[in-house]
Amino acid sequence: MSNFEQVIEECKQKLEYIANDNSVPRNIRRSANEILETLSKKDEPLFLRTSSSISILEDISNDPNIPVHTRTLIWDVASQLETIPVDE
C-alpha cells in the first residue's frame, strides 16, 4: 500500500467516526458519507478525489452547529488530504 493510500484509509476511518456520531448534526454526517464515497472512487484520479473532498470539508468546517471535537477532526482530515500532491 502506498503512503497516499494509507493517508486515505486513515481519513476514511475518521470520516466514518463522524458519520456514525449521533452528536453530530445530520447534514455534517451526510457530508462525511459523501466524502467517504468520493474517496472510495478508485476510477477517479487521486488528486480529483482529494481536492473535491477538501472542498466539502472546508464548507462543513464553517458550519456554526458543528461540535468542537468534530471540527477538529475535520481540520485533521483536511490537513492529511492536503499532503497528497496534485500531480500524482
Features:
0% strand, mainly alpha, 88 residues, de novo design (two linked rop proteins), single chain, 4 helices
Describe what you observe in this structure.
There is one protein chain. This protein is mostly helical and 88 residues long. The protein has a single domain (3-82), classed as de novo design (two linked rop proteins) (Up-down Bundle). It contains 4 helices and no strands. The chain has helices spanning 3-19, 26-40, 46-61, 68-81. The chain starts with a helix and ends in a 7-residue tail after the last helix.
The level-1 CATH class: Mainly Alpha
Could you list the spans in which at least 5 consecutive residues all have pLDDT below 50?
Answer: none
Helix run count: 4
Corresponding CATH architecture? Up-down Bundle
How would the blueprint of this fold be written?
Blueprint: H1 3-19, H2 26-40, H3 46-61, H4 68-81
Helix pairs in contact: 1-2, 1-4, 2-3, 3-4
InterPro entries: Ta0600-like_sf, UPF0147
Protein name: UPF0147 protein SAMN04488696_2292
Organism: Methanolobus profundi
